[in-house]
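User: I'm putting together a teaching handout on how sequence relates to shape, and I'd like one worked example. Could you take Toxin-antitoxin system HicB family antitoxin from Actinacidiphila reveromycinica, show the sequence you're using, and then write out its predicted structure as tokens right after it?

Assistant: Happy to. First the sequence, then the structure tokens directly below it.
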Amino acid sequence: MTESSRPARKQVLLRLDPAVHDALATWAAGELRSTNAQIEYLLRRALAEAGRMPSAVRPIPRRGRPAKEPPPEAE
């Protein structure tokens, strides 16, 4: 499935206590994630631990540079 054929991701407005946001942002930076990605990661983890993760959920899309392909093997 190409990126253009994927359904749009849902956008939500989230109001957080500033101290909670700062803690999330610091945690996210330590794990090299955006604050938004950290929130999604934590929500997915909570759903999985509670046994409430829907079966139709796809993995979080990988961002950034694609992985390097290994060099072709010499024959």
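A couple of points you could highlight for students: Helices lie at 18-30, 35-49. Residues 15-56 form one domain.
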